[in-house]
Amino acid sequence: MQYGYFDDENREYVITRPDTPLPWINYLGCQAFFGLISNTAGGYSFYRDARLRRLTRYRYNNVPFDLGGRYIYLRDDQSGDFWSPSWQPVCRDLEDYQCRHGMGYTIIGSRYQGMEARTRYFVPLNENLEVWELTVTNRRDSVAELSVFSSIEFCLWDAQDDATNFQRNFSIGEVEVEPGVIYHKTEYRERRNHFAYFACSAPVAGFDTQREAFLGPYRGWERPLAVERGSASNSVAHGWAPVGSHHVKLRLQPGESRRTIFLLGYHENPAGRKFDPPDSQIIAKASVRPLIARYLDPAHVEAAFGALRSYWCGLLGICQVQTPDVHTDRMVNIWNPCQCMATFNVSRSASFYESGIGRGLGFRDSNQDLLGFVHMVPERARERILDLAATQLASGGAYHQYQPLTKRGNNDIGSNFNDDPHWLIVGVSAYLKETGDWGILDEPVPYDNQPGSEQPLYAHLERSFRYTLDRLGPHGLPLIGRADWNDCLNLNCFSDTPGQSFQTTTNKDGNVAESVFIGALFVLAGHELADIAERRGLGQDASGYRAEVARMEQAMRLHGWDGKWFLRAYDDSGRKVGSAECEEGRIFIEPQGFAVLAGIGLEDERAEAALDSVGEMLATEHGIVLQQPAFSRYYLHLGEISSYPPGYKENAGIFCHNNPWIMIAEARAGRGDRAHDYYLRINPSARESISEVHRCEPYVYSQMIAGRDAPTYGEAKNSWLTGTAAWNYYAITQWILGIRPSYDGLEIAPVIPSGWPGFQAVRKFRGKTYHITVTRSGSGNRVSLTVDGVPVTGNIVPLSNGSATDVSVEVSLH
Ligand code: BGC
Ligand code: NOJ
């Protein structure tokens, strides 16, 4: 069953009924000001940091699930009837409801009693504000007298404090109101030099800024007193809960349309010029007024929307493909890169499943996310890499996360995840291959942001690598520390007390438990680092790294192989995890994917054997589960993984993040049919027709799909912010379609399904546009290249200094 359809031409998903199984959301903003918006206009906005600069309030885990947002109310002043064109919160029976989620914008509209209303929400490029552009059209054959009420609820900036510290917060709220503009200035009197504003383009009949005055006592958002009554009360908030609402009256002739623009923005004043007059407590507005005036002008708004469309056209235009499969095309060309930009911007901090206060930007996650967006915004990738590296500790280890506003690392959700440092190498090598910007390796970067500790970025990579060598276990494999990629495999935790954090509790010294997964990651990162060193003319460094990699590969062969698949780990007692010897958790997906992805086992039969075991034991129609058999009870020595009921999350859920590791591994093993088959099993578009089972958005990946042990098998959860976005994009574009940036040029190595006659692609790379046509002329994966009509040896389209900007690449696959 479907709740809408893809409009690929407009790069939109069109939702045609409001009661989707879960809120289906979109992201507004792509630089510093962000908003989350659901298909019924729920959600919130923030500036840079979803925790520290929250503009509007949102109550998570609410009933209904999604309540609170950018609501507009319309009231028929002749009958007194009122409704929300976005369905929620009033929830009348609407006609022609439609929500169009596009690239950085959302349009929601409907028709009710002959009145059509449509709101376009977006954040203009380079601005810290969002536009709501409401168009109301009278489709009746009589004059309509209407009232429009806008509404938002301000958050008192620090979202964590806002949701907990009521004894203070109920007394600090402050606003200023000018005709048409409501300013939210809580804490501006003291240490903040920022405020929010909510402006309206039409003359207002009234306003409200105190929640209780707008809603009325004992009422909710579905029946605000001001709306029911048809008049605002011009309330000025002192304490309690500041809101913003404008009341606008419209008189529309039959067929007439009227546009009203609302702006919600964030603004900063220089510390010494906060007030005007200087000795007053009144916000200085000289710098914000012209901005507001500009965006209340419909022509300017139209131009800003056009610029946003062009920006996305440019981003997506960097890699476009045309294959025989519509699901591949629309995910690669539109939605997957769109999701990659969201994970770049907010990492795992703010979605409808990430509260914006729990997690900042993760070191591991943000590095992996680079794989999905580095080609679109290389300069910003550069900045991100340097920011991440600056939080690295002198030991080579890493804070697990950092706050985007302060760019400082924090240990809020633990540290000593022994895989963390290697992801920096993975991210940097992806950046170098895409851009050829070798200068980044010479950038001085501090450790733990400590002035004076700066060393070239290259030295940070070296420390990342050494970090593991300093922490080898009894089998010569890496010690796992708190956990590796799988945050829930906690082999040193041994927690038996309710409420203890699996992320921060450690009861063992950590000198025994080893991770085969980190072994594989070390091999991958070590190869990358050696390649980098070689190209910098550091041959000796390179051979040193390669020697260590060879030693690790040997340890993996001797102690990381279980007979038919790779082992997962050794626990604190030196017992095997992920072995045929185990009663539960006999085989895990991570090492099968990552070892083969790192090239381990390709020279003997282990790679194929491991992948066959995955096919037999882990693959399901909804994707590949994380491990089997699921843990049926809590195991003290395994930790959080066994805290989940079977089939969910890391306990045998389909963790979509690591499915692409298997796709890449299959591609490396030359098995294109399997690689693409796995790709389609979790491809959201391919699952659109089972939306009632999948339940999350059909245009973006979710972190997890419930595994076959779960009663809700096939149900997705935690959409949008997941490493799944970057890894799937990387797997399909670079390993299945096989268009791969490399140091020497664009490598072409497709491993596509046997039934595909070929495909076409356009890829911009290092200043040139490559027009690639792949034609299958045999059943294998061997490639013959012709570049601008001239045959080329090997499978790399060499970099050229020629002046032509377009390069034509003919690929024969045989
Ligand atoms: C989740 C993991 C997540 C971890 C750290 C766990 O509860 O299951 O997926 O990585 O928390 O935030
Ligand atoms: C989600 C986390 O964001 C990521 O860092 C981790 O690797 C996976 N969960 C697996 O536990």
Task: Tell me what you see in this structure.
The chain is globular and about 80 Å long. The chain contains 19 helices and 43 strands. The mean pLDDT is 97. With 814 residues, the protein is α+β, with helices and mostly antiparallel strands. 57% of the residues are buried. Bound molecules: beta-D-glucopyranose (BGC) and 1-deoxynojirimycin. Beta-D-glucopyranose binds at residues 359, 413, 487-488, 503, 649-650.
Number of helices: 19
Q: What helical percentage do the residues reach?
A: 25-40%
What spatial form do the alpha-carbon principal axes imply?
globular
Question: What structural category characterises the helix and strand content?
Answer: alpha+beta
- Ligands: beta-D-glucopyranose, 1-deoxynojirimycin
Task: Output the keywords.
about 800 residues; alpha+beta; 10-stranded antiparallel sheet; 6-stranded antiparallel sheet; 19 helices; 43 strands; about 25% strand; binds beta-D-glucopyranose; binds 1-deoxynojirimycin
List the helices and strands and how they pair.
Layout: E1 4-7, E2 12-15, E3 25-28, E4 33-38, E5 45-47, E6 54-56, E7 71-76, E8 82-83, E9 95-102, E10 105-112, E11 115-122, E12 129-138, E13 144-157, H1 159-162, H2 166-169, E14 175-178, E15 181-184, E16 194-200, E17 206-210, H3 211-215, H4 225-229, E18 242-252, E19 257-268, H5 289-295, H6 298-316, E20 319-322, H7 326-346, E21 361-362, H8 363-373, H9 378-390, E22 399-402, E23 409-415, H10 420-435, E24 444-445, E25 455-456, H11 457-469, E26 514-515, H12 516-535, H13 539-559, E27 569-570, E28 576-577, E29 587-588, H14 589-597, H15 606-617, E30 619-620, E31 623-624, E32 627-628, E33 654-655, H16 659-668, H17 672-682, H18 691-694, E34 702-705, E35 716-719, H19 724-736, E36 739-742, E37 745-748, E38 758-765, E39 768-776, E40 783-787, E41 790-792, E42 796-798, E43 806-813
Parallel strand pairs: 39-43
Antiparallel strand pairs: 1-2, 2-9, 3-4, 4-5, 6-13, 7-8, 7-13, 9-10, 10-11, 11-12, 12-19, 13-18, 14-15, 15-16, 16-19, 17-18, 20-38, 21-22, 22-23, 24-25, 26-27, 27-28, 29-32, 30-31, 33-34, 34-35, 36-37, 37-42, 38-39, 40-41, 40-43
Helix pairs in contact: 7-8, 7-19, 8-9, 8-10, 8-19, 9-10, 10-11, 10-12, 11-12, 12-13, 12-14, 14-15, 14-16, 16-17, 16-19, 17-19
The chain binds beta-D-glucopyranose (BGC) and 1-deoxynojirimycin (NOJ).
